[in-house]
């Protein structure tokens, strides 16, 4: 089997591409199946039941079926899940109109298959990252950007596909994307070879071991709890606050699409930026800045402004800032979790993190009912801000995020320095400033944000002597110009002093003469 770095990287690209393609189809189904239910039954309650059935089975099966994935193998699970999704989508397209009960069962099965396929592909990615020696945060950022782009593309195409092809055509399109995902996953044998051997353990033992490991990992629990609350508030904004703001101020559904697109574009652009900068940026400050810049302002502007352009601008900036979160958290999970437990951890973390999503809309609805839209947004803003302070208050624990970052490369260790590493070193490394002003030399030294030496005077001879040792002709020219200027300034001051001395001597002579005459 070819396990060269080139083949490993190719398999990494194939897996991300498979996720992206199936994600486009999933967004199609997200619109097509509810629309099918609506046009065939006309019952909005049944629309909600269909959406809830898939979400519930997706979350629950991610936890309960993870030990089975460990036993079967991630690659086989991914292939069988995608192949099963093709069959289920075909069944929905052929028989979905006949019986709502049958449609509900098929959608629930689809949720199970999607959960296993998504978890399996993530599990396959991690050993490939390790085999290529790629920075986890960088790959996570690239993957997140690709998936965000595919989601935006799928959402944009979904409306057109449903109109042109009808809901059944959109469902068939989703089935076709799963076929493509299978074709992309089949050649990825290096992922299976790079994965560690998982010892066979009883189902309930494996499930218990997963929960035990999660419970004992304080950072993992803290991060997952944070995701629970931030997903809750983000869902509140997406399904209640933003639509109500648009209804109250614009009464134009296009404005709702503009806000959603702005956030997605910000996330995509931010993921590209994070992928570029991840080798040189510490992960803890990046996560804290992402929450503080990308969280509260997006809520606060809804309460304080009725200008759509302001909302869109702040939302784009918020998306760029928030894009640092998933790669940082994902890299931490990939690196801190034992490879044989990735499927179980992925299921548990997803279940807890997404647990806040169904509560977000409910909480926002009650807040609006009791306080009104503006005050409800302000209350949610305060609660969101309190949650985002968690990494700051618990900084001793959250700083362990930096421990999962790769060791910085050093010149001469045989590894190529990443792009921008020299620039980052100039910004965060030691800096010594030697300055000449007002006829005197001063020295100032810092290391990153830490001050090494306060501004202090330096003897002119020592300063000039140190600078002349540097083989930099423009610096020597600048020094000569400075010395010439200083000589001229001293000569001018000398003439001024001499003039004043002559004046004072004349006055003193006049006083002496006056005293002698008296």
From TrEMBL:
It holds the Pfam family MFS_1. One of its GO terms (molecular function) is transmembrane transporter activity. InterPro entries: MFS (IPR011701), MFS_dom (IPR020846), MFS_trans_sf (IPR036259). It is found in: Cell membrane. The keyword Membrane applies. GO terms for cellular component: plasma membrane. It is a multi-pass membrane protein. This is Putative drug antiporter protein. It comes from Catellatospora bangladeshensis.
